[in-house]
Amino acid sequence: MDEEYDLIVLGTGLKECILSGLLSVERLKVLHMDRNDYYGGAAASLNLNQLWRKFRGQEKPPAFLGSSKDYNVDMVPKFMMANGALVRVLVHTDVTKYLLFKAVDGSFVYKQGKIYKVPSNDVEAVKSTLMGLFEKRRARNFFIFVQSYDEEDSRTHEGMDLRTISTKELFSKYGLDDNTIDFVGHSLALHRDDRFLLEPALDTVKRVKLYAESMARFQGGSPYIYPLYGLGELPQAFARLSAVHGGTYMLGKPDCKVRRVGKVVRAICFMSHPIPNTDDIDSVQIILPQKQLGRRSDMYVFCCSHSHNVAPRGKYIAFVSAEVETDAPEAELEPGLALLGLIDERIIDIYDMYEPVNESSLDNCFISKSYDPTTHFESTVKDVLAMYTRITGKILDLSVDLSAASAAED
């Protein structure tokens, strides 16, 4: 390459497209190299023919599924918190002008073999059977504390330093039982396992506040939004942004040395009905907390349909995802698959998770981590923003006014 660049970004696709867009806006001259010959990498959205070719070789998709071009099947399905970091990045970079979003209809949690809607407002909270009457009162006191908590105002701290006390100690102060702790920690704070209980409580409080703020943005049935036509729209939008600001893309190039740190197993399921017991909604997330399954980490169910232009009308795409913990990965998904009802077609995808082993401060080569099994973007964006800080030495200011941004459709 004759041309000189400030840095080279390599990796798995979507994260790097976001990072390249951010850096190009900062006037850095970026060369983005990807091992694939298309944008999006591991996070691409495929039509039906592409999906079958990837997993079934020469076999053709069954005719009853409908037209291939009507499908946009995400390889890494994730919803976006409506008030979360990714939406703030989209607004900060003005990438929203390239995209259309729609709210996700519902969020559910698995408890003792059944699924329950995560309450979206006070009325639903009172009616919810997730908690008994007395537990609801204790939980209400906890939520009042969280909603009023201001890190800079000691009057809202109730004598506690959330940077030093553990989350378990905070829950104990409000007398929350194990089921409520499971619900709050995994469905609202979106922790993947129970390690958070021994960590400082501040992070969990911030996560629960984010959930509530995201719920309030669109007054819908969940705190999540999702792009029309699938997540494949995101890397293309950020690649366009980078190109506008002088970024260069070279596809089909190798990436740097990494090490495997685990595996993810995911079932891609095609159905002719919504997920049972979800009020027949068209898009939904269900979180199965690890303790409910006797696992070390959570399991996730993601479902979308024609409402977000990813499948023909009357067809639904559901994903069940988990980190592999045994030598029988597909069998691990059974609790999630059992929630789906009749499945027309099912594809199993098992992939390795990697993390970089190079020292970026020495070789100026920046590589992201692989995508985890979560069906939301919080951990993904956290990785991108950490890379941004390592590269620029700055913390990206995401304190943008989201009220003025049209990040979702009505």
The oligomeric status of these chains comes to single chain
Uncertain stretches: 406-410
The residue fraction in helices comes out at 25-40%
Total domains, how many?
A: 2
Q: Give the structural class.
A: alpha/beta
- Main sheet record: 7 strands, mixed
Count of runs of 4 or more consecutive helical residues: 14
Rg result? 21 Å
**Approximate strand percentage:** 15-25%
CATH class of the largest domain: Alpha Beta
What's the CATH H-level superfamily name of the largest domain? Guanine Nucleotide Dissociation Inhibitor, domain 2
Family: Belongs to the Rab GDI family.
Organism: Ceratodon purpureus (Fire moss)
Protein name: Guanosine nucleotide diphosphate dissociation inhibitor
GO molecular function: Rab GDP-dissociation inhibitor activity
Quick tags:
410 residues, alpha/beta, Guanine Nucleotide Dissociation Inhibitor, domain 2, Guanine Nucleotide Dissociation Inhibitor, domain 1, 7-stranded mixed beta sheet, 4-stranded parallel beta sheet, 14 helices, 21% strand, globular, disordered C terminus
Write the topology of this structure:
Layout: E1 7-11, H1 14-25, E2 30-34, E3 45-46, H2 48-56, E4 73-74, E5 80-81, H3 85-93, E6 101-103, E7 106-111, E8 114-117, H4 122-127, H5 133-148, H6 167-173, H7 178-188, H8 201-218, E9 224-227, H9 233-244, E10 248-251, E11 258-271, E12 284-288, H10 290-293, E13 299-305, E14 316-323, H11 329-332, H12 334-337, E15 345-356, H13 360-363, E16 365-367, H14 378-392
